[in-house]
Write a structure and sequence with these properties.
384 residues; alpha/beta; Rossmann fold; Dihydrodipicolinate Reductase, domain 2; 2 domains; 9-stranded mixed sheet; 6-stranded parallel sheet; 10 helices; globular; binds nicotinamide-adenine-dinucleotide
Length: 384
């Protein structure tokens, strides 16, 4: 599963003066994160936003005005946009809340439109499988919006692990958390079952899982024992408005014990709210060395500090601190948009492929199922 993360480095105009085609893009769902998509497309050479859709009347119009998008065509739903624009646009960014990820992505792919799908990929494993099948039958590109993949420190972590210096990897602990970080500044779409479907487990848990699974090469998950709870979303002081407690209907904490192919154990915990500063650092243990990735105060998929490698040289336990890599001028979000644009225009691979994120979603789904059943579950992931 080769990455195509460098694709963002394209220049639309080459040294011989050749100019690449400008790709035309629609944005589906004009809420919070759509603003970042819009600004990054505006800065991206060779991309033009031509259409917007939102199911809330007037929201897409206000978004167009705020982001200076003149002459965009505006629609009342994803389907209206795709039906009207499918022969005109190359791609859409799907920026809806989680429950609408699968229907919007599948509809776009089935009508021949490439998709940049926000994280988490979707809500259930069944939906993830359907997205992968739609991708296969369409022959189009779908990339999942994990911008931390482009973080130079995430890339370094993967390089360290892939170098083999850890020996055989047998145990991984990962996760992240926030003491008071239930996301309600822009309303309740993250905390309602009918819009988000899953809470912290999918929203920020997907980042922790991606960090470690991507660095070890995304082995297949086999079984999961999971737990979820939602105690803090019922406490008014944890939400931007007290009345939001009435709407809180997802998890704010999740944990899982996962067996991965290759005899690797993954121990995972994630929280939007908790009575401790951090649930854990990330550690990857191998027979020759271990690596520690320090936790952050407010987990959102970025690395908290320098990595430490622990090893044993001629019987002497040693620790090697790897300094953090500087970010370059282009931010991770810009790289996510540009690599997708490049893959669509130049026919490259999806920078963050569904074949990997399917396993991420299978673990999340397994934790939810196991928590409901109160026992371990096997993960039955079909071949696509
Ligand atoms: N990559 C990141 O850093 C990042 C950050 C924040 C959010 N996200 C993800 O982005 C997604 C959206 O988050 P948000 O905070 O922008 O949510 P939001 O609630 O602010 O916006 C979602 C918008 O989608 C619209 N919508 C829903 N279904 C639609 C449909 N079928 N057609 C057209 N419009 C539709 C809603 O009306 C709403 O305006 C979530 O899945 C979230 O996990 C990613």
């Amino acid at each position: 599963m080769a990455d195509n993360l460098d694709a963002y480095k394209f220049k639309q105009k080459t040294e011989d003066g050749e100019v690449g085609r400008t790709i035309k893009v629609g944005i589906i769902g004009t809420g919070w994160i759509a603003g970042d998509h819009a600004e990054c497309y505006k800065r991206c050479p060779g991309a033009e936003i031509v259409a917007l859709a939102d199911i809330v009347p007037g929201k897409a119009e206000a978004f167009a005005k705020k982001h200076g998008l003149e002459n965009v065509r505006i629609y009342n739903s994803d389907r209206e946009l795709i039906d009207a624009e499918k022969d005109n646009i190359d791609a859409v960014s799907v920026c809806t809340y989680n429950r609408q990820h699968a229907p919007c992505a599948i509809y776009a792919l089935d009508h021949g439109v490439n998709v940049l799908l926000e994280k988490p990929m979707c809500v259930t494993l069944d939906e993830a499988v359907e997205i992968c099948r739609a991708e296969k039958r369409s022959g189009k590109i779908i990339s999942v919006g994990f911008q931390p993949r482009f973080d130079p420190n995430m890339i370094m972590l993967k390089e360290v692990v892939q170098s083999g210096i850890l020996g055989k990897i047998y145990y991984i602990q990962t996760g992240g958390g926030r003491r008071m970080g239930i996301p309600t500044p822009f309303g309740t779409s993250f905390i309602r079952d009918d819009t988000a479907g899953i809470g912290a487990l999918a929203d920020i848990g997907c980042y922790s899982l991606d960090m470690v699974l991507n660095s070890i090469g995304y082995p297949k998950p086999l079984t999961v024992t999971g737990y979820t709870s939602g105690f803090f979303g019922k406490k008014p002081e944890y939400l931007d408005r007290p009345e939001y407690t009435e709407e809180f209907s997802v998890d704010d904490f999740g944990a899982g014990f996962i067996r991965l192919e290759g005899d690797i154990i993954l121990d995972f915990r994630i929280a939007w709210a908790m009575n401790i500063d951090s649930p854990c650092d990330t550690i990857i243990l191998g027979t020759e060395a271990g690596v520690r990735v320090p936790a952050t105060d407010c987990w959102n998929g970025s690395i908290g500090g320098p990595l430490t490698i622990y090893s044993n040289i001629t019987g002497i336990p040693v620790q090697t601190l790897i300094p953090k890599r500087d970010e370059d001028d282009l931010g991770n979000f810009d790289k996510k948009i540009r690599s997708f644009v490049s893959a669509v225009r130049d026919g490259g691979k999806a920078p963050v492929p569904t074949s990997q994120i399917l396993y991420n979603q299978a673990i999340i789904d397994g934790i939810v199922r196991s928590s409901k059943l109160g026992r371990e579950v096997e993960l039955d992931i079909p071949e696509i």
